[in-house]
Design a protein that fits this description.
Helices cover about 30% and strands about 35% of the residues. It is of the alpha+beta class. The protein is globular.
């Protein structure tokens, strides 16, 4: 099976819910979060974790995970800014199905803390 590598910047609360899943699934979105948006490159994930999550909660994490490439192709790449600011927009109601197509564990690959 071919997979696509995705990254997700996250804060401590969301990461704790991922831990509770055994690092196998993303938690349901909150009512004010209609979209789950993993990103397509590590640099963009680092910038969000470091520049947004750290000021908001004192710590930011970058996670990496693999998803079945055939499944994830249903979500068109969204450019959310510059040339490398690329995301997938997964509707909240499709997150359970998205989670079923994660291959292997969700891994924490970077951690940033307030100085």
């Amino acid at each position: 099976m071919r997979t696509t590598t995705l990254w997700r910047p996250t804060g401590p609360e969301e990461l704790e819910l991922v831990r509770q899943s055994g690092f196998t699934a993303w938690p349901p979105r909150l009512p004010e979060q209609p979209i789950f948006y993993p990103v397509l490159n590590e640099d963009y994930a680092i910038r969000i974790a470091r520049d947004w999550n750290v000021p908001a909660s004192g710590v930011g994490y970058v996670t990496r995970f693999e998803v079945d490439a055939e499944f994830v192709a249903r979500y068109p790449v969204q450019r959310a800014g510059g040339e490398t600011i690329l995301e997938l927009w997964v509707p909240a109601e499709e997150l359970d199905e998205f989670n079923r197509h994660i291959v292997g564990p969700i891994e924490v690959v970077h951690e940033f803390r307030a100085a």
